[in-house]
Design goal:
The protein is built from seven helices and no strands. Helix content is about 40%, strand content about 0%. The longest helix has 22 residues.
Length: about 170
């Protein structure tokens, strides 16, 4: 094996490059980036825990599941829990948000604001139109795809098949 001799300006460049400390390819566990990520993960887990056990969640929040029937909790990470499933449709996002939070134009919501109005469903099957009635029983909607456990994808498919559901076009008379 023969060694190549470096001379002149190349020798200086070689010498300078060897003096520069090498950076590790992976961050150390005590690095600022790792600490920040670890702190964000901890905050996210704490928020999810408080969401599940506290009264801040709301009485009418609808639990949706993933494809394995695990209940999903709200998250902002990686596109959020539901937003990444909706694509580019703002109206679909609005309808799903109304459905999940039960802030939708259905009888059980209007009862809080207009108790003297007719809150029954136009299909005639329910005295008070509820979101669960709309999803599972109402003849006015195509609800053949919704199963017992409401998965995000099944719920989005229901809203795509029934664009008037949970919209303010679908109002109570």
């Amino acid at each position: 094996m023969s060694l190549v001799r470096v001379s002149g300006p190349h020798k200086l460049a070689d010498k300078d490059s060897k003096r520069i400390p090498k950076r590790p390819l992976l961050p150390r566990k005590n690095s600022w980036v790792f600490s920040r990520r670890d702190e964000c993960d901890s905050i996210q887990k704490t928020r999810q825990m408080f969401f599940q056990v506290s009264g801040k969640r709301g009485n009418h929040f609808l639990d949706l599941t993933d494809n394995n029937n695990h209940i999903l909790t709200p998250s902002y990470a990686k596109g959020g829990t539901w937003l990444r499933h909706m694509g580019e449709s703002p109206s679909l996002c609005a309808h799903l948000t109304r459905l999940i939070t039960n802030h939708a134009p259905v009888g059980e919501y209007y009862f809080c604001f207009f108790p003297n109005k007719n809150l029954s469903c136009p299909c005639g099957k329910a005295n008070i139109k509820t979101r669960l009635h709309t999803l599972f029983e109402c003849d006015l909607y195509n609800n053949g795809n919704v199963v017992l456990y409401l998965s995000v994808q099944d719920t989005i498919n229901f809203l795509k098949d029934n664009p008037e559901a949970f919209s303010f076009k679908d109002t109570i008379t």
